[in-house]
Amino acid sequence: MKVRWRQHELIFVTILAVIALAGYLWNVHNTPIDAFASPFINTHTPFNLYLNVLLPDIGLVLLAYLTYLFINLFIIPCLLFPKKMEAGTAQGFISLNKMKISLKGMAGKVAKKMVWLMLQILLIVLLLGTANNIATYFTHQRQFNYPGFSIFFNKNIPDSQLNIRAGYAVVLFSLGLYALYVGLREIVINQVERPEGRRDFRILICNELTLFLAELILLPCFLRSFKLDEGHGFFIPYFSFVIPLFLVLMSNTYWLFPLKGTKSFLSKPILTRLLLSTLLYTLPFIFLLSLSPYVFIGRIFLVCWLSQLFILTPITWLAFQQKKDKILALMGAQKELIKSKADFQFLRSQINPHFLFNILNTLYGTALQENAGRTAEGIQKLGDMMRFMLHENNLDFIDMHKEVDYLNNYIALQKLRTQYSPEINIEDNISGQNCKHKIAPMLLIPLVENAFKHGISLKEKSWIKISLHCNDIDILFEVRNSVHQRQENDPEKDKSGIGFKNVLERLKLIYPGKFQIAVNDDGKEFFVQLSIQP
Fold first, then answer.
1. Which of 215, 335, 379, 521 is deepest in the core (most CB within 10 A)?
2. Cβ distance 26 to 226 under 8 Å?
3. Whose CA is closest to 194, among 90, 324, 41?
4. For residue 324, what are the contacts with CB-CB under 8 A and spacing of at least 6?
5. How far is it, in rounded angstroms, from Cα 105 to Cα 85?
C-alpha cells in the first residue's frame, strides 16, 4: 500500500484546469463582445477578441498546467527517485559497477544535482515570466497605447507601463511557495510510509484525507468558475457543514467504532466519546457561520450537531460494517507482528545453549591438560561468541564494543583455521573500542561471514580485508574479499547471499534514511561498504 497524495494532487490539478478553462469559455460566450472591446475602442486601440482576450488567458492557463506536469512528472522524480540512488532511500543500495561511492564523489553528485535544479528553475522562470508579460501586454494593450511606452517600469512617468520584472518575480515567488509545499508533502509522506507501527493504517487515513480535500475544493471552484454562487452566501455554510461531517465520518470509522467492539452504543465510554467528538467538530465552524448574514447560529448549531448524532452516525456505522474486516486487520497488524516476534523469541529460547557451555568448558580444560594451546584458544573464543548470542542478541541495541568483540572472536577463529595456508591473507583493522554509539546486534557479522564463505579457496590465492572505524557521527564498515569461480557441481553456485539480503532488510527497518551501503563485484573482488548514522 502506497500514499496516493501525489496522484490525488495530479488528478485534482487536472480537473481544476479543465474547470477553469471551461468556466472561462462559458463566461466569454455569455458576455457581449462590447464589454471586452469598449475599453480598447475608447483609447483608440485596435481590438481582436482572440489576440487580446482568448489566447493570452487560455495560453497562460495551459502553460502553467504543462509546467506543473513537467515539475511533478520529471523534475521531482529525478530529484527524489533517481534510477541509481544511495542506499537508505527506496532501494537501499547502489551497485558500484556504474558508480564509485566516495565522500568526494557523493559531494560532486549533489553539486551537479543542485546545478541541474537551478537550471530547471531558471528555465521555468524565463518561460512562464515571459509568457506572463506577453499575456499582460495583450490583455491590457489599451493602457500601453501611447508614445514613449516602455516595457520597463518608470515611476517618473505617470501612465501605465508594463513592469516586466514583476512578471518574473511573480513566477519565482509562486515557485518558491510550491517548493515549500512539496517539501512539506514529501516529509509527511515519508513519515506516513515509515515501516514501523501501523503503516498501512496510516496510509489508508492519509489517502482518505487527501481525496476528501481534493473533492472539497473542486465544488466551490466549479461554482465560482461558472459564476453560480454569486449573491447566495454559499461558501461559508458549505465549509462549515462539510468539514465537520467528514471529521465525524473519519473519527467514527477509524477510531470510535473499532474501539467499540462488542460494547453497546449506550455504554458510558462510547456514548461520552461520541457526544464530545461531535460537539468538538461542530463548535469551531459555528464561528465561521457567524460571518454569514443568512444563518441563525443557535438553530444551525443544534441542527448540525443533531444531524451528526442521529443521521451521520448510523450512516457511518453501516459504512463501517462494509469494510470492518479490512480496518480491523490493518489496525491489528502491529499486534500480529508483536505476537510473531514473541513466538520467535519463545522458539529460540527452547534451544538452550547453557549445556553447550559446560561441554566447551570441559573441552577447554582437556585441551590445556594436553598442551593444545590453539584448541583451547579456539574453544574459549567460541564460548565467548555463544555467550554473546545468548545474552546480547536478544536486545534491540548493544554497545558498539560488544559487537566489535564478537567480530574479533569470529575473525580469530577463522585465522586459526587458515593460518597455515600461505596463499590466504586475512587483514583486519577494527577500531571500535572508543565508539560511544549503540548498534543493532549481529548486524555486521553476516557481511564478514559472506566474505569467509565466498572469499576463501584452498587452491587459489585468497584475501579478505576488514576495517571498522567510528566517529561522533557515523560507523563506517568495509569488507573486501577475493572472488573465485565456483564448480559446476557446487550446490550454492547460483545462490545469492541470504545474509546480505537480511542485512538490507534490517537496515531499512532499524535505520531508515540513516544508512548508506555500497557494493561492487568486478569478478575478481567483492567489496561492500556500510555507513550508519546511529
1. 379
2. yes
3. 90
4. 257
5. 13
Cβ count near 523 (within 10 Å): 7
pLDDT in tens, 47-94: 999 999 999 999 999 999 999 999 999 998 888 876 433 443 333 344
State the cell numbers at 123: 528555465
Average pLDDT score, the chain:
78
Instruction: Pick 505 or 479 by higher pLDDT.
Output: 479
Q: What is the pLDDT of residues 218-228, one digit of tens each?
A: 988 998 888 88
Q: How big is the chain, counted in residues?
A: 534
Task: Estimate to the nearest angstrom the gap between the alpha carbon of 65 and the chain centroid.
Answer: 25
Q: What angle do CA 293, 313, 4 make, to 5 degrees?
A: 85
Task: Collect contacts of 293-300 with beta carbons under 8 A, ≥24 apart.
Answer: 293/233, 294/233, 294/237, 295/236, 295/237
* Pick from 385, 466, 453: nearest CA to 425: 466
Residue 171 neighbours by CB distance under 10 Å: 23
According to the model, what pLDDT value does residue 210 have? 92
183: its cell numbers = 517539501
**How much is the pLDDT for 181?**
95
Name the amino acid, one letter, at 495: K
Residues contacting residue 411 through CB under 8 Å, at least 6 positions apart = 426, 428, 430, 448, 466
Q: Cβ contacts of residue 404 below 8 Å, gap of 6+?
A: 430, 432, 433, 435, 468
- The SS3 call for residue 531 is strand
Name 426's bridge partners: 464
CA dist 191 and 189 (Å) reads 5
Residue 118 CB burial class (10 angstroms; 0-12, 13-18, ≥19): exposed
Neighbour count for residue 268 (Cβ, 10 Å): 9
Which sequence spans correspond to the domains of the chain? 32-83+115-193, 235-343, 392-532
CA distance 115 to 293: 54
Which residues 6+ apart lie within 8 Å of 200 measured at CB? 1, 330, 333
Cα dihedral 89, 95, 98, 101 sign: positive
What CATH number should be reported for the domain whose range is 392-532? 3.30.565.10
DSSP percent split of the chain into helix, strand, coil, nearest 5: 65, 10, 25
Using CA atoms, how far apart are residues 166 and 172, in angstroms rounded to an integer? Answer: 10
pLDDT tens digits, one per residue of 262-300:
677 778 888 888 888 888 887 776 666 665 555 555 666
| H or E segment to which residue 399 belongs | strand 398-399
**Residues 6 or more apart whose Cβ sits within 8 Å of residue 81:** 89, 90
